[in-house]
């Protein structure tokens, strides 16, 4: 999945959820 530059950083992390939920968890904290 390619990241859309238009979306905010948070949205990009959401897309990365497919690769690893760890990224989102760390971002949220």
List keywords for this structure.
29 residues, mainly alpha
Give a written overview of the molecule:
By secondary structure, this protein is mainly α. It has one domain. The protein has two helices and no strands. The protein has helices at 9-15, 21-28. The longest helix has 8 residues, at 21-28.
Layout of helices and strands:
Elements: H1 9-15, H2 21-28
- What share of the residues lie within helices? 40-55%
Q: How many domain units?
A: 1
Put simply, the count of helices is 2
The Cα radius of gyration reads: 9 Å
Tell me the span between the first and last alpha carbons: 24 Å
- Count of extended strands: 0
Kindly name the structural category: mainly alpha
Parts with pLDDT < 50 across at least 5 consecutive residues: none
In this structure, how is the largest beta sheet organized? none
Shape: elongated
* Element-by-element helix/strand order: HH
Roughly what is the average pLDDT, rounded to an integer? Answer: 58
Strand content: under 5%
Task: Summarize this entry quickly.
Helix content is 52%, strand content 0%. It has helices spanning 9-15, 21-28.
């Amino acid at each position: 999945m390619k990241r859309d530059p238009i979306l905010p950083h948070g949205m990009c992390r959401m897309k990365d959820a497919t690769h690893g939920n760890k990224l989102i968890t760390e971002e949220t904290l």
